[in-house]
Every structure is written in structure tokens, then in C-alpha cells.
């Protein structure tokens, strides 16, 4: 059985007989589908980038929801979470500062310091 498997591997075949990529170039081609039209390639790249960003943001949101759904959340737990997730919090504040608030919104009228806002939001 082992000889059969090794023979399949050497022939670049899967155990089911499907062709497997054997070189780095073949492997890359199997993952990256390209089109001859450069504008379509650019759009495909943009879609892949957006999907990757979405997946990352969904993970960040799940981490925040996990914290907020904890019925035993204390100030101490929050501070520990905040230390562990410093990059996430910095990213949130950078996005918040980059996005202008609509006129007359509460955020525009009262802008607390970032650390005061985080501490008082829990």
C-alpha cells in the first residue's frame, strides 16, 4: 500500500487519480486563476483583497462580541482584554478618526479622549 501511495505521489496524482500540481509554478496556477484581460485581473485582485479584509473584520467583531456577551465582565477583565487587543483598539480609533461624523451628531459635539472613551464605554 505504501509503495502504491509513493508511486502516486511521484506521478503527481492524488489517491483518487486526480492530477496534483508538482512544481511551485503549477501549484500557484492552481490557486490563482488569471485572465488575459488586465482590468478583470485587477477587479479579481480587489475582490480577493476585500474578502480577506472582511474575514479579518469578522474575526475582530467576533472577539468584541465575545467580550461583550460575557455576563461576568468586570473592569479588570476588560482592561486585560484591552491590553491583549491593543492593535484592534488602535485600529478602531484610527478608523473612527478617519471617518468624519455627521453634523450635529453626539460624537461631533463631545469628543472624549480615546482612553477615556474606552474606559467609560464599559
From TrEMBL:
Comp. bias intervals (Basic and acidic residues): 17-27
Compositionally biased spans, kind Polar residues: 112-122
InterPro entries assigned to the protein according to its UniProt record, in alphabetical order: CNKSR
Region of interest (Disordered), residue spans: 1-27, 95-122
Highest taxon of source: Eukaryota
Protein name, UniProt field: Interactor protein for cytohesin exchange factors 1-like
Source organism of this protein record: Galeopterus variegatus
Lineage: Eukaryota, Metazoa, Chordata, Craniata, Vertebrata
